[in-house]
Amino acid sequence: MRLCDLRPAKGSVKARKRVGRGIGSGHGKTSTRGTKGDKARGSTPPGFEGGQTPLHRRLPQRRGFTNIFKKEYAIVNLDTLAKLSEETITPELLLEKGIVKKIKSGVRVLGRGEIERAITVRAHYFSKSAEEKIKAKGGAVEVI
User: Fold this and answer.
1) What domains, with CATH codes, occur in the chain?
2) CB atoms within 10 A of CB 31
């Protein structure tokens, strides 16, 4: 066996259809495209809907913008902190207990609910009402 004897398996290679090579080829004149119409002449642009106003022109345009520097905080309320038995509450503790799923740009403590004992809370931001309620019970607020 020599290199020149190698052939692909029978039926695995199909001959290319040569269109537009005269009437005798069987694929001449219209080159298997049929007569008239857009499919015979060229290609329609993507999104073309047959003359109907296309979807991308029917939909309203997006307005405004998204601030890429926006800070998003993990929010915790006082009623949630009241349920914890620890004296010092940190973002790491909240993450460990599953109260906060992700710390994001920091932890923000808001004033919904009441606390019954003195606790120390370390967070990145406190609302005025949350800070007042914690200090009223003899607790401490530490901004990280």
Assistant:
1) 74-143 (3.100.10.10)
2) 14
